[in-house]
Amino acid sequence: MRFSGWRVLKEGLTGNKGWTGHWRDPEPKREYDVVIIGGGGHGLATAYYLAKEHGITNIAVLEKGYLGGGNVGRNTTIVRANYYLPGNSEFYSHSMHLWEGLEQDLNYNAMMSQRGLMMIYHNDGQRDAMVRRGNAIINQGDDAELLDIEGVRQRAPFLNFDDNRFPVMGALLHRRGGTARHDAVAWGFARGADMRGVDLIQNCEVTGIDVENGKVRGVQTSRGVIRAKKVALAAAGRSGQVAAMAGLRLPIESHVLQAFVTEGLKPIINHVIAFAESHMYISQSDKGGLVFGSYLDFYNSYAARGNLPMVEHTMESIMAMVPALGKARLLRSWGGIMDMTPDGSPIIDHSGIEGLYLNCGWCYGGFKATPGSGNAYAHLIATDRPHGAATKFKLDRFRSGYGLMDEEGTGAQHNLH
């Protein structure tokens, strides 16, 4: 079924009786060429690109819950390519190019909105860091523009420009940054993969990974044994637990990152705005809700809910930066489980076990990486060679110390990235 304006008009005039399900509900087969563990954005995108670009369609995506019920539906929907270290810079640039053609590629409305992203700086040191970051972004071939205080005021007059602790001095504007509807991204990739013959198997929990003589043979699941020539992990915040089933210990800690949304308001915020102080970021959804978040909760957890002190910290931050929002009512909050690496950068690599592949450690960058991650991971699985945009996402860098990408410059502490 292909979506079009004509199809919408026809269905509207005929009682909407012609729509069909977006994907099948198949029973798992006994064996596949590739089994992907995790039916979130990265797992579904990997299956889609394996089928579309490499012709591998005998694939099962195993999801213990429902498709898109994990981190891809528990984030703040931000899309950007404003990293500055080699490795991250070219990868997120590649991902942004895929984002910009994604809706046409999938024939699915992901509500991609390149409304622009402003990173606010509050002191001279942060300004210098923004200049450096902006130059790196431009050298990569993406866009960056340094704004002075008047440039920020024209775009966001509601900010608190006179706060004594955190005065707004300017911003780095990334015009191609913006948002996309997170669950629609998962559904679009799921639909595209299913149309190419991929089996999407929900309510199928992986309970073990079979390894014989250094080679992966398949997985144990709540719906029986499934044999596979290749097994690919894409389990987001649960990566450490799933990898342990194969005897691997990953350099990853899992932490909770909370996000919040207010009641629907009239349009007030036209950009995504991030503040260098307090790590807070805010945007407005198409339904009018203000979506925002800040730091991790600073303790290890697999719980998809956070603690009250971080709620208080985030509300204090938003009141300091945008006092006009003081009367907005908070509607709900949620937590996503971040798999944090020691340098804050991800892993797309072989595991050291033949036929077993890793896609993990996305820290804060998982959603914006979705199409790039799936595209690069599919390339690795299909060819056994790293994609050109992901050559630096090696697991071995944490053993050798060579090639670390500490984007935040905070050292080897997982929760500070």
SSE order and pairing:
Layout (H helix, E strand, L loop, with lengths): L4 H9 L17 E7 L3 H14 L4 E4 L15 E2 L8 H13 L1 H5 L10 E5 L2 H17 L4 E4 H7 L14 E5 L3 E2 L2 H14 L3 E3 L4 E7 L2 E7 L2 E10 L5 H6 L8 E10 L9 E4 L5 E4 L5 E11 L7 H14 L8 E11 L6 E4 L5 E5 L9 H14 L13 H4 L17
Parallel strand pairs: 1-2, 1-11, 2-8, 4-13, 11-18
Antiparallel strand pairs: 3-7, 4-6, 5-6, 9-10, 10-11, 12-15, 12-16, 13-14, 14-15, 17-18
Helix pairs in contact: 2-7, 2-10, 3-10
What key phrases describe this protein's structure?
417 residues, alpha/beta, FAD/NAD(P)-binding domain, D-Amino Acid Oxidase, Chain A, domain 2, 8-stranded mixed sheet, 18 strands, 25% strand
Distance separating the two termini: 43 Å
- Number of contiguous helices: 11
Mean pLDDT: 94
Radius of gyration: 21 Å
Main β-sheet description: 8 strands, mixed
Helix content: 25-40%
- The CATH architecture term of the largest domain is 3-Layer(bba) Sandwich
Q: Structurally, how many domains make up the residues?
A: 2
Q: Quickly give the structural class.
A: alpha/beta
- Total DSSP E strands: 18
Measured by DSSP, the beta-strand proportion falls in 25-35%
Q: Specify the overall morphology.
A: globular
Q: Runs with pLDDT <50, length 5+?
A: none
What is the assigned CATH homologous superfamily of the largest domain? FAD/NAD(P)-binding domain
In the CATH scheme, the class of the largest domain would be: Alpha Beta
Order of helices and strands: HEHEEHHEHEHEEHEEEEHEEEEHEEEHH
In CATH terms, what is the fold-level topology of the largest domain?
FAD/NAD(P)-binding domain
